[in-house]
Design a protein that fits this description.
The protein is mostly helical. It has one domain: Arp2/3 complex 21 kDa subunit ARPC3 (Orthogonal Bundle). Helices cover 69% and strands 4% of the residues. It contains seven helices and two strands; from the N terminus they run αββαααααα. A two-stranded antiparallel ribbon has the order 1-2. It holds the Pfam family BioY. It is found in: Cell membrane. It comes from Tabrizicola oligotrophica.
C-alpha cells in the first residue's frame, strides 16, 4: 500500500517537474510541454490504475491552486481556458496508456511507443481538442488544425517514453509495474 502511494506521489511530482521545461506556444495560451510525456510514463511504467491515479493526483493538486502547470500556473481558473480538455484528459490518457501497455504483446519499447501514441496522444487529443475549441472560442475543426502542430513533438515524446521505459525495464525489471 505505502509503495503504491509512493509511486503515485512520485509520478505526480514528475509530471509537475516536467512543467519546468520551457514550453513552445502554438497559439497564445496553448503550447507543447513535456508534461504529457510524464502522463505517458505514468502509464507505461506504473500501469493503468496507478498511472491514472498519479495523473489524477497531479490534476487535483493543480486545481487546488499549486502553480504546477507548464508556465507556472494553477487553480480552477484553468478550467475556463483552452487547456481544460488536456487537464481533464491527463488521468484518462495515463490509464489507457497503462492498459494498452499491459496488453500489447510486443517488446517493451515497441509496446511503450504504441501505448503512448494511443493513450498519451489519441486519448489526450480526444479530450484536448474539444476543450481547446470551447476554451478558445474556436470550432472543432479549427482546434483540430491547431492540434496537428502538436503531433511531431508528441511523437518525439512517445519515442523518449519508449526508450525510458525500456531502460527502466532493463535496470530494474520489478519497477515496470505495467507488465507485472
Amino acid at each position: 500500500m505505502e509503495r503504491n502511494l509512493t509511486h503515485i506521489a512520485l509520478f505526480a511530482a514528475m509530471i509537475a517537474a516536467l512543467g519546468l521545461i520551457p514550453r513552445f506556444e502554438i497559439v497564445p495560451g496553448i503550447g507543447i510541454t513535456a508534461q504529457s510525456m510524464g502522463v505517458m510514463l505514468c502509464g507505461t511504467i506504473l500501469g493503468a490504475r496507478l498511472g491514472g491515479l498519479a495523473a489524477g493526483l497531479f490534476v487535483l493538486v493543480l486545481l487546488l491552486g499549486l502553480p504546477i502547470w507548464a508556465g507556472g500556473v494553477g487553480g480552477v481558473g484553468l478550467l475556463a481556458t483552452g487547456k481544460v480538455g488536456f487537464i481533464v484528459g491527463f488521468p484518462f490518457a495515463a490509464f489507457v496508456t497503462g492498459w494498452m501497455m499491459s496488453r500489447l504483446p510486443a517488446s517493451i519499447p515497441v509496446s511503450a511507443f504504441f501505448a503512448s501514441v494511443i493513450g498519451g496522444m489519441g486519448v489526450l487529443y480526444a479530450f484536448g481538442i474539444p476543450g481547446m475549441a470551447w476554451g478558445l472560442g474556436k470550432t472543432l475543426n479549427e482546434a483540430l488544425v491547431i492540434s496537428l502542430s502538436f503531433i511531431p513533438g508528441d511523437l518525439v515524446k512517445a519515442v523518449l517514453t519508449a526508450a525510458i521505459t525500456a531502460a527502466v525495464a532493463k535496470a530494474r525489471p520489478a519497477a515496470l509495474l505495467s507488465r507485472g
